[in-house]
Amino acid sequence: MAARIYQIPMNAMQSGRALTDKWVLEFEPSEARKADALTGWAGSGDTQRQVTMKFPTVDAAKAYADKYGISYTVVPTPHKTLKLQAYADNFR
After folding, report:
1. What is the residue range of 61's domain?
2. Exposed/middle/buried for 20, CB within 10 Å: 0-12, 13-18, 19+?
3. For the chain, what percentages of helix, strand and coil (3-state, to nearest 5) are there?
4. Overall number of domains in the chain
5. In this structure, is residue 40 part of a structural domain?
6. What average pLDDT does range 59-78 have in this prediction?
7. pLDDT for the residue numbered 73
8. Could you say which DSSP state residue 30 is in?
9. What totals of helices (H) and strands (E) does the chain contain, helices first?
């Protein structure tokens, strides 16, 4: 069983930093999704894809994975850069 540990990124519609300090442990898919012939919906028999666990720190997520023997990879958080500008800069 393999898992990814990553920090929740900001979405495009979010200007604040709410919930971006949480870390997520998410299991890697063990089988590919395939389209259902009758409905056309994509699905698989992999139930681990439904499980996501949130932790306050990356160390807590690593400790949980080590405790239960889950192999994991930590996805580094990209560096956040702020573009500070004034409203008047839009008219230059």
Report:
1. 2-34+45-91
2. middle
3. 20, 25, 55
4. 1
5. no
6. 94
7. 96
8. S
9. 1, 6
Tokens standing for residue 77: 């958080």
Q: Can you read off the two tokens belonging to residue 29?
A: 């898919």
Does residue 81 belong to any structural domain of this protein?
Answer: yes
Structural domain includes residue 39: no
Token pair 């949480």: residue: 22
Amino acid type, 27: F
The CATH number that applies at residue 6 is 3.30.160
Q: How far apart are alpha carbons 28 and 1 in whole angstroms? A: 8
Query: In this model, does residue 57 exceed pLDDT 90?
Result: yes
* Inter-residue contact 37 to 73 (CB < 8 Å): no
Name the H helices within the chain: 58-67
pTM: 0.74
Provide the pLDDT confidence category of residue 70 given band limits of 50, 70 and 90. Answer: very high
Is 23 within the bounds of a domain? Answer: yes
